[in-house]
Amino acid sequence: MPATIRDVAKAAGVSVATVSRALNDAEKVLPETRERVLAAAAELRFVPSSAARSLSTRSTQTIGAMLPDLHGEYFSELIRGIDLAARARGLHLLLSSSHGDADEAAAALRAMTGRVDGFLLMSPHVDEDFLRGNLPGDVPVVLMNTRLAGRSHPTFRVDNYGGARRMVEHLQTNGRQHIAMIGGPASNPEALARQQGYTDAVQASGAQPLVLPGDFTEAAGWRAGHELLAMKQLPDAVFACNDMMAVGLIAALRENGVHVPQDMAVAGFDDIPIARYLSPSLTTIRVPVVGLGTLAVEALVQQIGDSHSEPVLDQLLNVELIVRDSSQPPP
Questions:
Q1: Contact indicator for 135, 113 with CB cutoff of 8 Å
Q2: Burial per residue of 149-184, b for 16 or more beta-carbon CB atoms within 10 angstroms, e otherwise
Q3: Is the same domain home to 243 and 313?
Q4: Strand locations in 54-167, DSSP E?
Q5: How far apart (Å, rounded) are the C-alpha atoms in residues 141 and 148?
Q6: The pLDDT of residue 50 is above 60
Q7: What is the C-alpha separation between 271 and 268, in angstroms, rounded?
Q8: How far apart are CA 240 and CA 268, in angstroms?
Q9: Contact, 236 vs 264, CB < 8 A?
Q10: CATH no. for residue 239?
Q11: Strands 179-182 vs 320-322: parallel, antiparallel or unpaired
Q12: Cis preceding-peptide flag for 280 (omega within 30 of 0)
């Protein structure tokens, strides 16, 4: 059987309370007593129980993150930013996904409650009623790309609308007049903001929007490419709602002899690492994905450490237009 804290106390000749204080670096324990406790714990291969420690300190040293999905380079980069910031502060990360389903999102939150000191949430299903029904009211929460009408929680959002408008204006400046878009999931607030930015920019030029359905996957971009190829008149540019769909679109066009950017310009959104290595390299909107995760962790740690502090509410993160080969002007 694994050694218990009582075994360590017996071997060191001290009380259980003294062992607890010694293992937690309490200043009240004499140096020689602490050394004796640590030596006994090492000899017995004693591993402190994180659950027991959390009961005594009311801290799990763990934060929870619930994201819409865990697949793809965007979420990989976001998780990397969260994890780096958490580890730098000595925190562990408990991760879950809602898979785009409100019931799964609720189940994930309830499963993590009591195991974490606070939550990072990115979900289209989150509103005040959702949080009230699935989380204790005193649990710190920070939202990412999720906006609540009540604005009662720190929120970090990417300028999806502004980035989409800037991309359309870039394509128009490069001589593209008929610009289509591959949209994202209908319930995703980021996708909706990007689509609105595209629509407003296209209509401002006197043209008509053309939005094809998408779901943020390479397969959706590939399907949209074949849908475009079946049209009587091809657009001269396509703005994909994210880079992964742009990757699938370029593949479909290449398979059918359509050259990018000579015949059709292609642009994406996010600037995932693979974007610069495509052929042609992908013009896109750079999103501070890692920075989004880092800022969210910093705000959550502040809330956990001082529940009475005034949170930074609804911070909009700037994006950057990255021009590469896929959007060069037509010959």
A1: yes
A2: eeeebbbbbbbbbbbbbbbbbbbbebebeebbbbbb
A3: no
A4: 62-67, 92-97, 119-121, 141-144, 155-158
A5: 12
A6: no
A7: 8
A8: 5
A9: yes
A10: 3.40.50.2300
A11: unpaired
A12: yes
The whole domain housing 301 covers 62-158+289-318
- 19: three-class secondary structure by DSSP: helix
Average model confidence (pLDDT) across the chain = 89
Whole-angstrom distance, CA of residue 331 vs CA of residue 327: 12
Q: Are residues 167 and 252 in the same domain?
A: yes
Using DSSP's 3-state secondary structure scheme, residue 286 falls into strand
Higher pLDDT, 136 or 213: 213
Do 95 and 65 contact (CB within 8 A), yes or no? yes
Residues 132, 238 share a domain: no
Q: Could you give the count of Cα atoms lying within 13 Å of 265 in the half-sphere of its Cβ?
A: 28
Least confident of 59-63, 287-291, 314-318: 59-63
Whether 262 and 113 share a structural domain: no
Among 129-133, 160-164, 221-225, 234-238, which stretch is predicted with the lowest mean pLDDT?
A: 129-133
What count of other Cβ atoms lies within 10 Å of the Cβ of residue 10? Answer: 14
3-state secondary structure 298-315: HHHHHHHHCCCCCCCCCE
pLDDT at residue 55, rounded to an integer: 44
Cα–Cα distance, 275 to 316 (Å, whole number): 24
Q: In total, how many domains does the chain have? A: 3
Judgement on whether residues 111 and 179 belong to the same structural domain of the protein? no
If you average pLDDT over residues 76-98, what whole number do you get? 92
CATH of the domain at 38: 1.10.260.40
Is the separation of the CB atoms in 242 and 184 below 8 Å? yes
CB 121 within 8 A of CB 147: no
Whether residue 261 is preceded by a cis peptide bond, meaning omega within 30 degrees of 0, is yes
